[in-house]
Structure formats: structure tokens, C-alpha cells
């Protein structure tokens, strides 16, 4: 089993830090997406911000024969120089009649806020504060808001769709804000708008999806009629179920012939998405690599079976079974061991990489197995000695020594830890 000694959040530095009191790993997670469209005002574009809050990060309490959760959402739009361009603060009230509804797998609350912005580059900051648990989570991302009022062919950002339904001839769209398509089996739906600033009557749409290392997994061409200044397009991409990983969708729309002189006009937008099952950590975007990173804790047979799996589906099932057997709280939706393990892998990659990935180095291996040490002694300039470090773990009454034999920061383990490797398995 994984030797969990510390919480996930560790100061980002060039070297490992001694353990310090930290918050837990149970900070609420939520999802944010921002999609820009043309607005009625030619000087501005419209930015729609969606906030997706899963029920399992909210604290529901009994309230007059029902169950209620409340959380506050703050969305700020900032310039790159931190100038405030817009702010929305609202309180969401979620109520259900039964406790089972609050525990329903995949249940969430979705809200939207809109901003009219001058085209440009912005920093978008969203914060969710659970009013019952008092926990807060924040997401920050850089966004580009395009100018859709120019006399050229252009298109809005691309929205992934979870569901499409029709009500009296009116289409209702539920956006996929998590970007997770693991459950997609009947095709991936996308929505966007084409702005016809050129006066053409049709465009050719090219959809391509690439996976790890830009490997192409899908391509589709469709001819669309475009009428007036704006045409809304809902496209079904006839794709098979995705293997675990990260993908990039590229949508290109182009005129079939030159508008005036020269080449036909085209416009391109990209949208990333993931295939992630169950409680798989967000740092995992390559299943093959995630399996190799288990070599410190997997039994020989488990490791061989996962590596030798004939299909991605088989490998994925073996991977999920591996972690399910080690789940310290199988009745909950989270697997704390898996979260902790891959958080340590990510930390090792950020702090110990050189010509090897950080998780493959000696320091990375020890950190992944034992976490942050209680104390660190660094000896970079001792006379008659190569640089070395001593990591102390009080819980195990153990000191681990590393030496930089080459002088290039490649610290090798000098202290045998075979017994700890065996215990981890």
C-alpha cells in the first residue's frame, strides 16, 4: 500500500521542502468554461462564463423536509495588467426533496454569467465558496475574446454539448463544461456560430480530433449553408468511445471560392477535451504512462498484466481494478490513495526532472513512496565531499541520503530502501 505521510500541497521550489502544516486535499472542485460569441454591439463581443459545481463537493443539510446546499460564486474579468473589466457575485440555492437526489452519481448545478467585452486578452477568475462547509476553490485561466464584427468569415468559440433536446421546435442545449467525454457512445456533439462577413452562401467545415503526440483519431468534412450574418451550427461527430487521455478538436470553416481575389477565406477554432473515468486524477492524460508510474507500488504480476494488455479497454479495466483494491474508502466517490500517489508523481516531475522525468529519478522515487520529509539537510559546498542531501523521516526513524556524483544535479540514492519498496507493494 502507498505510504501516505503528508498532504498534497507543498511549496513549489527547486528542491523538496520539509513537511509543513497544510490544508487537506478535500478542497471543492468545480469546472469553468468561457465561450465568446458576437454581440448586438459591434464594438463588443459577448463572453458566456459557465460554472459547473458537482453535488459531491457541496454540503447538503436537512431543511424543512428537504435538503439544501448554498454556495457563492464570484466571477471576475481582468486585463493582463489586473484591471477589473467586470464582476458578477451571486448566491446559488440548490434544493431537493430526498437525500438520494443529492447523492446521485454525476449530479451537478450549472450556472451562466455573461459579459460584454472589447475584443482582447483577459484573465478570468472564478471562485466558489460553500456557505455551509466554508470551503473555497478558485479557477484562473487566460482567455482570448475575438472580434466578430469584421467584414471577414469568422466563428465563435466551440462549445461541447452534453445533451440536445427539442421543445416545440426549439432546440435546448446543455453544455459539457467538464470537457469529459468518457461516457460518449453515440457521437460527440458541438455547437458554434459562423459569422458571414463576406456574403458567401456556404462554407466547408473540417473537423479533426488528435490525441497524444498529435496522433489523428478522427476527421470529418461537412458542407453548410450560411444565411444572413449569423448561422448557428450543431454538429454530431461520429466518433467511437475514447480511450483515457487528452484530445484536441480543431474546427475549420472556409469559403469554397475566393471572396474577391486571392485564396478562399478560412477561420479556425480549437477545443481541448478529455476522457476520464470515475475518480481518475486530472493529472493523468496518458494511461500508458500512468501505468508505468505504478512500478513502485504494483506487484510484479499486476504491473506485467497492465503493460501487456492487448487493448486500451483491457488496460483501463486493469488500472481501475488496481486502484479499487487499494481504495481506503470504497463507499465514497474518491480514492485518496490514487489522488495522493499521482499528486506526488506530479510534484516529482516538477522538482526533480533533468535528463530523466522526475518520477524516474531516485529523489522522485523516494518522494513518491514517502512524501515530504520531516527535515532536509543540504550540503552543497562541503570540503572534500560531493554535494549531498539528507532527508529525515521521523515516522520511520529513517534517514535517506542522496549524493550528486556528477555535479549536474543528478542526486543518486545512497541509502537502501528495499524494505520500503516491498512494504509499498
Notable characteristics:
alpha+beta; five-stranded antiparallel β-sheet; Coagulation Factor XIII, Chain A, domain 1; disordered N terminus; 425 residues; Immunoglobulin-like
Task: Give your account of this protein's structure.
This protein has three domains: 26-143, Immunoglobulin-like, CATH 2.60.40.10; 150-276, Coagulation Factor XIII, Chain A, domain 1 (Distorted Sandwich), CATH 2.70.50.60; 287-424, no CATH class. The protein is built from seven helices and 21 strands. It has helices spanning 99-102, 287-292, 300-307, 312-325, 336-351, 362-370, 418-424, and strands at 31-38, 45-54, 61-63, 66-78, 84-96, 108-117, 120-130, 136-145, 153-155, 159-167, 170-175, 188-196, 202-210, 216-225, 230-237, 245-255, 266-275, 375-379, 388-393, 398-404, 411-413. Helix 3 packs antiparallel against helix 4 and helix 5 (336-351) packs antiparallel against helix 6 (362-370). The longest helix is centred in the C-terminal third of the chain and has 16 residues, at 336-351.
Give the low-confidence spans.
1-14, 20-28
> In oligomeric terms, what are we looking at?
single chain
Mean pLDDT: 87
Instruction: Determine the fraction of residues in helical runs and give it as a percent range.
Output: 10-25%
Sheet with most strands: 5 strands, antiparallel
Domain count: the total is 3
Radius of gyration: 25 Å
Write the layout of secondary structure elements.
Blueprint: E1 31-38, E2 45-54, E3 61-63, E4 66-78, E5 84-96, H1 99-102, E6 108-117, E7 120-130, E8 136-145, E9 153-155, E10 159-167, E11 170-175, E12 188-196, E13 202-210, E14 216-225, E15 230-237, E16 245-255, E17 266-275, H2 287-292, H3 300-307, H4 312-325, H5 336-351, H6 362-370, E18 375-379, E19 388-393, E20 398-404, E21 411-413, H7 418-424
Antiparallel strand pairs: 1-2, 2-6, 3-4, 4-5, 4-7, 7-8, 9-12, 10-11, 10-12, 12-15, 13-14, 13-16, 16-17, 18-19, 19-20, 20-21
Helix pairs in contact: 3-4, 5-6
Amino acid at each position: 500500500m502507498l505510504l501516505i505521510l503528508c498532504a498534497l500541497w507543498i511549496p513549489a521550489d527547486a528542491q523538496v521542502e520539509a513537511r509543513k502544516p497544510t490544508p487537506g486535499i478535500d478542497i471543492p472542485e468545480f469546472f469553468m468554461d468561457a465561450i465568446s460569441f458576437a454581440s448586438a454591439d459591434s464594438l463588443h463581443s459577448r463572453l458566456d462564463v459557465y460554472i459547473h459545481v458537482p453535488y459531491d463537493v457541496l454540503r447538503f443539510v436537512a431543511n424543512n423536509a428537504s435538503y439544501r446546499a448554498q454556495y457563492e460564486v464570484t466571477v471576475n474579468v481582468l486585463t493582463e495588467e489586473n484591471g477589473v473589466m467586470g464582476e458578477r457575485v451571486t448566491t446559488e440555492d440548490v434544493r431537493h426533496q430526498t437525500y438520494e437526489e443529492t447523492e446521485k452519481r454525476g449530479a451537478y448545478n450549472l450556472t451562466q454569467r455573461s459579459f460584454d467585452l472589447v475584443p482582447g486578452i483577459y484573465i478570468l477568475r472564478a471562485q466558489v465558496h460553500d456557505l455551509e462547509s466554508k470551503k473555497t476553490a478558485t479557477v484562473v485561466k487566460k482567455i482570448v475574446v475575438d472580434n466578430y464584427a469584421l467584414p471577414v468569415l469568422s466563428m465563435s468559440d466551440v462549445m461541447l454539448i452534453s445533451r440536445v433536446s427539442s421543445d416545440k421546435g426549439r432546440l435546448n442545449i446543455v453544455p459539457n463544461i467538464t470537457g469529459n467525454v468518457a461516457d460518449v457512445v453515440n457521437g460527440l456533439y458541438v455547437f458554434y456560430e459562423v459569422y458571414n462577413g463576406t456574403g458567401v452562401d456556404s462554407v466547408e467545415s473540417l473537423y479533426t480530433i488528435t490525441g497524444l503526440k498529435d496522433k489523428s483519431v478522427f476527421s470529418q468534412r461537412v458542407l453548410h449553408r450560411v444565411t444572413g450574418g449569423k448561422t448557428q451550427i450543431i454538429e454530431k461527430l461520429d466518433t467511437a468511445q475514447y480511450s483515457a487521455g487528452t484530445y484536441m478538436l480543431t474546427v475549420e470553416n472556409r469559403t469554397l471560392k475566393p471572396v474577391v481575389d486571392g485564396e478562399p477565406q478560412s477561420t479556425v477554432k480549437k477545443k481541448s477535451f478529455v476522457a476520464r473515468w470515475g475518480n481518475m486524477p486530472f493529472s493523468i492524460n496518458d494511461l500508458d504512462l500512468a501505468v508505468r508510474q505504478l512500478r513502485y507500488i504494483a506487484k510484479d504480476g499486476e504491473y506485467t498484466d497492465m503493460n501487456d494488455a492487448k487493448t486500451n479497454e483491457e488496460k483501463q479495466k486493469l488500472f481501475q481494478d488496481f486502484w479499487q483494491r487499494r481504495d481506503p474508502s470504497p463507499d465514497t466517490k474518491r480514492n485518496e490513495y490514487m489522488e495522493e500517489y499521482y499528486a506526488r508523481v506530479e510534484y516529482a516531475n516538477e522538482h526533480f526532472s533533468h535528463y530523466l522525468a522526475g518520477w524516474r529519478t531516485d529523489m522522485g522515487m523516494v518522494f513518491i513512496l514517502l512524501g515530504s520529509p520531516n527535515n532536509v539537510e543540504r550540503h552543497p559546498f562541503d570540503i572534500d565531499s560531493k554535494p549531498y542531501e539528507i532527508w529525515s523521516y521521523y515516522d520511520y526513524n529513517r534517514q535517506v541520503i542522496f549524493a550528486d556524483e556528477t555535479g549536474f544535479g543528478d542526486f543518486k540514492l545512497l541509502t537502501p530502501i528495499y524494505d520500503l519498496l516491498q512494504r509499498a507493494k
